Each structure stands twice: as structure tokens, then as C-alpha cells.
Amino acid sequence: MRKHPLALSLILALTLLLFCSPAEAAGQLTVTESNLLTIPGSGTGLFCAAVENTGDAPIAVGQGKLAVFTDAGELLLVQDYLSATPTGLLLAPGEGTYLTAYLWDEQLGALTAPLTCTVSVRTNDWSQAADVLTATSVLDVDAGTVDVTFTNPSDAILSGLLLNVALRDAEGALLGVCSTSLDRVGLHPGSTLTVTVPLDWNLTEALRAAGVTISSAEAQVLSLR
Q1: CB contact at 8 A, 133 and 107
Q2: For residues 86 and 163, is the Cβ–Cβ distance under 8 A?
Q3: Please, what is the average pLDDT of the chain?
Q4: Residue-level pLDDT at 41
Q5: What is the pLDDT of residues 58-67, one digit of tens each?
Q6: Which residues are within 8 A (CB) of 203 and not within 5 positions of it... i.e. 6 or more apart?
Q7: Containing H/E element for 61?
Q8: Kind plus residue range of the DSSP H or E element containing 33
Q9: pTM of this prediction?
Q10: Which of 14, 123, 153, 177 is deepest in the core (most CB within 10 A)?
């Protein structure tokens, strides 16, 4: 008996559906921007990076790794412990956070040539879920502070609040990140709170030495679950 071409096509389509399952969703941590600052003559430096989940499933942020090179391509130092605040923060697709580290190495203070770096970040074995609260930021460079204001939109008291404040120049480039925690604060439903976050002294000194001016600040307010 001769089989109709349409019947053969249907059989083939059903076979493909049975044996071909869709690709499993997965998170992907991507470094979208970074900045390395050194304080001349001090042998210290500061590093920060913005990390985003560019995948299609939640993923926890683990430790990052930084490699710093001279302008000639020679490896200067490796930092294995770039950390997020909090460690293990669970990022939904499209969400991001920051990695930071202090660097101590005599060669950092001795070099005046431009430095380049590569950074990678791995996922964490355990995760910390958090809600992101909408916030506004007011930068006061002269006072060395950022006022962060946010409201509790939920019907429960929020505690375990963490703030990450990203500092940027006039072109919007990431300069550094300052973080603080409010472990003993409970924010009641509908209540609004303003927190004054001091700018890190080492960060402002490094920026001053580099002749770079902070132009804006943006805050990430997290309520740990």
C-alpha cells in the first residue's frame, strides 16, 4: 500500500517530538563592566565589576577571579577572591550586582603605566534570595556621602537590608562600589527610610589621584529572604 506524503510527514514530526527535548534553561554570569584603581606609591588598589545574569534561569553569584597585567602584557598579580554583597546572591535573568576587592601588592604602587585586567566569575554552591527595592540616590561629593531613600512596598516587616551604591563618572562609566548593611533595622510596610552611605576613603583617594570626578550614584537595595 502506498503511503501518502502527508502521513509520512506527520510520522516524522511525531518522532522528532518524542526524541528531541528542548534545551534545559540555565543561568549565565556575564561581566558587563569593570574598573581598576591604584593609589600611586601606596601598593594598594581597588577593583569593581558589574555582573549580570544573561541566561534564562536564576543563578547564584560566587567568587570572582581577577588577573592584572602590565601594559606590556606581563602578569602582575592574581586575586582569587572577588566577592559580591551578599555572597551567593541569586540573580533572576536580567538582574545584576557587583563584585569588589581590595588589592595589596608593592608592584601596584611602583607602576605608572596603564594596567589591564581580565575577570571571571563562577556560580555559587548555595544561594541567597533577595527582593530588590526601588531606590533613589542623592550624591554629595563634598560631604563624601550618598543618601539612599527607599520604601517597603510589601505587607511584611523587611529586615536583612543590604545596600550597594555604584559610583559613575560623567560618561556613565563604573568607578567603584560602596556597600553597607542594616542588620538591626526592621522596615515596616509602607515606611520610607533614608540611609546615608559614606564613600569609601580609599576609593575617593584613588579617584583623586587619578584625577577622576564622581558624577552620579545609583543604589541597589536588597531585602534578604
Answers
A1: no
A2: no
A3: 87
A4: 72
A5: 999 999 999 9
A6: 37, 46, 167, 175, 176, 178
A7: strand 59-69
A8: strand 29-39
A9: 0.84
A10: 177
Query: Residue 29: which of 117, 116, 118, 93 has the closest Cα?
Result: 93
CA distance 120 to 137: 29
Cβ-based neighbour number of residue 37 at 10 Å? 22
Amino acid 68: pLDDT: 87
Rounded CA-CA distance 165/148 in Å is: 9
Cα(203)–Cα(102) distance, integer angstroms: 10
Cell numbers representing residue 99 in the block: 563584585
Task: List residues bridging with 117 in a β-sheet.
Answer: 68
Cell triple for 185: 533595622
Tell me how far CA of residue 142 lies from CA of 126, 189, 198, 200, in angstroms. 40, 34, 11, 13
Q: How many CB atoms lie within 10 A of CB 188?
A: 12
Q: Is the dihedral angle over the CA atoms 91, 29, 45, 79 positive or is it negative?
A: positive
Instruction: List the grid coordinates of 137.
Output: 540616590
Higher-confidence residue: 9 or 60?
60
Per-residue pLDDT tens digits for 104-117: 876 666 555 567 88
Q: What is the pLDDT of residues 114-168, one digit of tens each?
A: 678 899 999 988 999 999 999 999 999 999 999 999 999 999 999 989 999 999 9
